[in-house]
Amino acid sequence: MTGRRRGITRVLSIVALVGLHAPAVGQTALPTLRIEAPGALEAVREKVSRFPLDRLTTAMTLAGLTHAGPPIDVLLIAESSDLARGTPPWISGFADPGRNLVVLFPNRARFYPSDSLETLLHHEVAHILFSRAAQGRPVPRWFNEGLALAAERPVGLGDRSRLAWTLVRHGVVSLSELERLFDEGRAANQRAYAVASALVRDLLRAHGEASAGRVLSLVGQDRPFDEAFETVMGEPLLAAVDRFWSRQRLWGRWIPFLSGPTFLWMVITLLALYAIRAHRRRRAAQRRLWEAEEQAETERVLRQRLLDADPGASGSSYEVH
Known about the structure:
The chain is mainly alpha-helical. Helix content is 63%, strand content 5%. The termini are far apart.
């Protein structure tokens, strides 16, 4: 009987320990990351292992997940490795959802669209989570990358500047062209990220963050992406994209004017007028200073003449009107 009590006590202890580490009902269970690196990157591995995981909550929310699933292996790759030499230099990391694997090139972490090694990590882990939400079924790359950018960080000035330049230089980009841009070199790749980021953030503002997870869930049920999108968003994909570009064109109408010669000459003219006015103010102030000095000198000469004519006169008895 004593042995039986001990066994029951041991089981209850284990259950209690599991309860301490298990997430509460409704609480998000964040991913577990296993960081690996060669000896040359050991210091970087230590740094990455200290990155706070709570920032992955945004990726979990966008994926519509409350449990992240199996641990994710994160490999840090040195630039001297064969893998780094065989990977285009503008690619700073990639995810392999089938292997639960993220590969990062730390020396490239500050290349757009990422701005740090931490945001790059969040970006690639987000891809793993999105794939799990979609049960491994493919989604358009523009949607996947745009979601990952929304998960890793808020929109920044660089994103807005690149989108504005795309509008000025290239105009509207179709979804099929957007997909191709990701694989057409550094400049095209960065354009693709800028457009995908703006487009997906626009969709999230219009339909809410939870809409992305619902789309991924329907894709995971073997629904085509366009069908899943329309079911969740309540409008066809192309209609949503057209609305996005219509809003961009409203702003885009001002961009050619602001960057054109007419506006530049207006700015130059205004600056010239301001410079002329400032110069005139300085000259007027200088003239007032000279007049004050001349008046003071005149008073001094008059006082001196008075003293020379009447040595007993006091300077305080003479007043100039």
